[in-house]
Amino acid sequence: MKKTMILSVLSTLALAGCQSEDAKVTDISNAKAEDISNTKRTLALQLSESYANIEPMLRKDITAEHINVPLSSFAEQKPLSAFSQQLIQADTQIRAWKGISEYSDQLLEVRLANEEMLGVWQEGTVDPLFAFEPTGDDEQWQYIEAYDVYGQVHQLDVYQLPDVPVLVVDSNSSAELKAGLQAMQAEMSKLGQATMVQPYMTDIAKAQKSLFSHAESTPQPIQTTVLKKIRLANDQEPWISGKAEIYAIVTGVNPTRDEPTLDLVELPYLDYDNTTYLPNQIIIHWSRYRWGAADIVLMEQDDGTDYKQLAKLLVQVAEEVLKAIPDPEVQAYAIIPQITNKIIDAIPDGALTNDDDFIDVYYTLMQDTSYVDHPGAGVNTVATFEPLTINPTRP
C-alpha cells in the first residue's frame, strides 16, 4: 500500500525543519540500497560461474525443510573457494551498511526462490538460474535479472513464477529484522528514547513471566492490548522477494513527560498475504502511553534499510511534532496521529525501497477497547485487537 494513498486522505503535519534531514537520509539510503543490490548482482554472477563446484552442496542442503543455504554452510564446506570468500566479504560489508554489525554474525544466504520450484530442483534435469532482488519500487521493475550457468543474462517476468529453479542471493530476512530492531533500540536509547522491543511469544504465560521478572517492587496488574487475528490483503508481491518480514511501530506520548514513546514489535509470523494469522500477541503496553491511546504502523523490512539512520530519523521527527505543540494536554490524543503521520511521511524511500513496505496504519487504538475485524486506514490489513489485564502470579 502506497504511503501517498494513505496520506492523501489523512492530514499530515509538515515540519520544514526536518525536510533537509529527511532528504539527506533518503539520499544516503538510496546509495546504500544500490550498493547492496550491486553486491548481490556480483555474487549471483559468481554463483553461476562457480555452480559446477558447489552444486553437490546445494543439492544436499536445499530440501523441503530448508530451501536456503546460509553463509556458514559455504564457509564450513567450501572455505577456500572463491565464492565462499566473496560471500564472507560481502556479508561483512552489507551488515555494516545496514548498521547491524554488532547484532548479527551473518546475513547472506542462497535460497530457492519459491517452494513451488522444489520438485523441478530435486529432479536435477534443468540447470537453475541465479538471481538477486533489484533495488527500487517493485512497481517500477521491468524484469528480474538472472544468470544461467554460462553467465548469460536472462530477463524474467516480475510476477510470473519461472518454470525453472531460481537460486537467489539474498539476506536472511528474519535474522536481519531481529538484528535491525536491536540496532534501532540501541540507537534510540542513545538519543534518550527508551524504546522497548517486544519479541514474539506464542504463549501469553511466557510473556507474563518475562514482564513480571523485571518488576522492581510488588508486581501490579499490567494493562495490555493483544493482537488476536490479522490478515494482509493481496499485495502482488514479486516472487523473488520471498516471505515478508513485518514489524510494528507503536507510537504515542510518554505518560509522564512531553516526549514521544516509540516501541517496536516483532511480527515474524506474517509471511504471506491473503492468509489469516492468529498470533494472540501482546502489542501495546498501556503503562507506556498517555491518554490510553496509541497508533500502530505496520512495516515490512526492506533490503536497503540502514537501521541506525532510520532510528535517528524516527526519534527526530516524533520529537519535532511535540516541540511544535505548546500544550499537548489541550489536544490530548489528537496529537498521536500527527506523530504517526509525520513518521510515515518521513520514512525515506531509500531506507524502505519498495513503497509497499509501508503496509498499513491503525490510528487511535484505545485502552480497554475491543476492535473486531478492524480495517487499517489503508484497508490493506484487517485485525482484531482485544484488551488483556495480566495479573501477577499468585503464590
UniProtKB/TrEMBL annotation:
PROSITE patterns: PROKAR_LIPOPROTEIN. InterPro entries: DUF3103. This is DUF3103 domain-containing protein. The lineage of its organism: Bacteria, Pseudomonadati, Pseudomonadota, Gammaproteobacteria, Vibrionales.
